[in-house]
């Protein structure tokens, strides 16, 4: 039995309907997802996959998307107090619709099944390495730019306890 089960009914505050608070979030995610997926589809038409070939369109889609998410997260957490719907629209919607790690998995399977294990394993490793590097580079580069424009280049940011990022006292 939870505490709310033992409270008198009159003491509970009514909860708003779930969709009333979440409907705008779901709407911007859907809109952003449609935009991102359209961009991904356009890239796949522009750069079609040849049978047994390296899936360059999917590779670059995921790498670019990862670099942008790294930059975007720094911008909205360190440089800009973004409105409530910006993060779900851009990060979950646009970039979630643009990147395609499910297609990445299918591409690997197709390469392995069609007798191209070398290409499949190279794609597997290259995408993971490139995507993680892209997130890191996107975030690091954006953080450096943000610090330069805010006049804090060369200085370390202090955390809530007053210590520098490395954990040493100031």
3D architecture notes:
The chain is mainly α and 170 residues long. 68% of the residues lie in helices and 0% in strands. Helix 5 (101-113) runs antiparallel to helix 6. The longest helix has 33 residues, at 117-149. The termini are far apart. Mean pLDDT is 85; it is low at 155-170.
Distinctive features:
single chain; about 170 residues; mainly alpha; 6 helices; about 70% helix; globular
Largest sheet: none
Query: Fraction of residues in helices?
Result: 55-70%
Distance between the termini: 49 Å
Cα gyration radius (Å) = 22 Å
Label the overall shape: globular
What can be said about this structure in brief?
This protein is mainly α.
Write the layout of secondary structure elements.
Blueprint lengths: L2 H4 L11 H29 L9 H24 L6 H13 L2 H13 L3 H33 L21
């Amino acid at each position: 039995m939870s505490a709310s089960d033992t409270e008198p009914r009159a003491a509970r505050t009514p909860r708003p309907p779930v969709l009333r608070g979440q409907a705008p979030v779901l709407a911007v995610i859907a809109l952003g997802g449609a935009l991102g997926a359209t961009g991904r589809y356009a890239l796949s038409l522009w750069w079609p996959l040849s049978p047994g070939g390296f899936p360059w369109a999917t590779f670059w889609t995921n790498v670019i998307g990862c670099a942008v998410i790294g930059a975007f997260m720094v911008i909205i957490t360190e440089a800009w107090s973004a409105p409530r719907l910006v993060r779900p629209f851009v990060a979950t919607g646009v970039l979630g619709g643009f990147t395609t790690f499910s297609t990445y998995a299918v591409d690997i399977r197709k390469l392995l099944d069609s007798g191209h294990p070398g290409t499949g394993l190279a794609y597997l490793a290259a995408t993971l390495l490139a995507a993680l590097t892209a997130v890191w580079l996107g975030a690091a580069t954006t953080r450096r730019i943000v610090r330069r424009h805010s006049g804090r280049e060369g200085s370390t940011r202090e955390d809530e306890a007053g210590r520098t990022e490395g954990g040493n006292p100031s």
